[in-house]
């Protein structure tokens, strides 16, 4: 047997329905209530239950669908009572009672539809605020805090399934001189182009973040040291092509650390990748270094012939 959906399940079901479906459901409920009013012959009043279809129509279908449901409910109640012989008052009084019910149902429909719009607007604003708090406002990639959060999630997944993971720290060489010569607006455009090119060069599962200034971080899940080296060679080639295309003479220094089995936090990996990046800068800039993390206190250079050749070519 299928489980009976709970309240949250019913709400999710209604949220996914089109206004046409919501309208059909609301008017079907109105017909059922009118039939119940007719069958009881005025002995029982179902007028309060008309709030259900009106509320459903207004909340999930919008203002005008709610108004239509309110009008239909008032008319259906009046006709059902009239046909069942339950209208004992005079015609003016009956019309006044029907008008009062219509006014009440219309008020409910308008209030609920307005409340719904307010809730939706607040949710949109909250989502935008959350996005702003997690993304760098200039480049639109993740910021440092969001990178740390995503990094820890990926590290846990990597450890659970015994899969490698690589963290990269990248710095734009002599970025200050770009700002000094071309101005801060051009420097900002340079950072935007870098972020866009990084996102275009990497997989959708990879993570790009701007840590601040001209410093970027990359997180490459399911990537060992050899694969990371090949990826960074491709990334550097793409960045170099972008710099030539835009007429900038910027270059890039990169440090990368691969975690294969040791237990370590994202901060520690990022710290070591940063140190490797500064080693590249001290040795002449415009290059990269890749290392394999074994234990928190033991590091060794990933020095397979394939990787060493790729590093020499990148230099």
Describe the structure.
It contains eleven helices and six strands. It has 315 residues and is an alpha+beta fold. Strands 2-3-1-4-5-6 form a six-stranded mixed sheet, sandwiched between helices. Strand 5 and strand 6 (298-301) form a beta hairpin. The longest helix is centred in the middle third of the chain and has 44 residues, at 91-134. The N and C termini lie far apart (65 Å).
Chain-wise SSE layout:
Layout: H1 7-15, H2 19-40, H3 51-61, H4 63-84, H5 91-134, H6 144-160, E1 165-173, H7 175-182, H8 184-201, E2 207-212, E3 215-221, H9 225-246, E4 251-259, H10 266-282, E5 288-295, E6 298-301, H11 305-314
Parallel strand pairs: 4-5
Antiparallel strand pairs: 1-3, 1-4, 2-3, 5-6
Please give a handful of descriptors for the protein shown.
single chain; 315 residues; alpha+beta; six-stranded mixed β-sheet; disordered C terminus
- Please give the alpha-carbon distance between the first and last residues: 65 Å
Hey, roughly how much beta strand do the residues contain?
5-15%
Question: Which blocks of ≥5 consecutive residues have pLDDT under 50?
Answer: 296-315
Number of extended strands? 6
The tally of helices reads 11
Please tell me the overall pLDDT.
83
Q: Over the alpha carbons, how many angstroms does the gyration radius reach?
A: 32 Å
The sequence of SSEs as H and E is: HHHHHHEHHEEHEHEEH
Q: Class by helix and strand content? A: alpha+beta
What level of helicity do the residues show?
55-70%
Shape: elongated
What does the main sheet amount to? 6 strands, mixed
Strand adjacency order, main sheet: 2-3-1-4-5-6
């Amino acid at each position: 047997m299928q489980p009976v959906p709970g309240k949250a399940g019913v709400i999710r079901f209604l949220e996914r329905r089109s206004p046409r479906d919501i309208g059909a459901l609301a008017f079907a409920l109105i017909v059922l209530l009118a039939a119940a009013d007719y069958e009881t012959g005025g002995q029982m009043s179902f007028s309060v239950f008309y709030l259900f279809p009106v509320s459903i129509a207004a909340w999930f279908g919008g203002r005008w669908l709610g108004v239509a449901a309110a009008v239909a409910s008032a008319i259906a109640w009046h006709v059902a009572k009239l046909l069942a012989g339950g209208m004992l008052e005079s015609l003016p009084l009956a019309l006044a009672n029907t008008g009062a019910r219509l006014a009440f149902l219309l008020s409910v429909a308008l209030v609920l539809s307005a409340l719904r719009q307010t809730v939706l607007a607040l949710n949109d604003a909250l989502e935008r605020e959350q996005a702003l708090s997690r993304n760098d406002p200039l480049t639109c990639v993740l910021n440092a805090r969001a990178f740390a959060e995503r990094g820890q999630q990926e590290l846990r997944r990597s450890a659970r399934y015994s899969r490698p993971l690589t963290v990269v720290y990248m710095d734009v060489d002599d970025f200050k001189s770009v700002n000094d010569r071309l101005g801060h607006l051009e420097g900002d455009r340079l950072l935007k182009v870098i972020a866009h090119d990084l996102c275009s060069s990497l997989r959708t599962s990879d993570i790009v973040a701007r840590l601040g200034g001209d410093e970027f971080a990359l997180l490459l899940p399911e990537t060992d040291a050899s694969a990371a080296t090949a990826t960074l060679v491709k990334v550097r080639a793409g960045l170099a092509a972008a710099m030539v295309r835009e007429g900038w003479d910027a270059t890039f220094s990169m440090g990368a650390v691969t975690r294969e089995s040791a237990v370590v936090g994202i901060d520690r990996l990022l710290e070591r990748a940063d140190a490797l990046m500064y080693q590249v800068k001290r040795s002449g800039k415009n290059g990269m270094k890749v290392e394999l993390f074994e234990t928190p206190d033991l590091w060794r250079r990933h020095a397979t012939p394939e990787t060493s050749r790729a590093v020499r070519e990148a230099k």
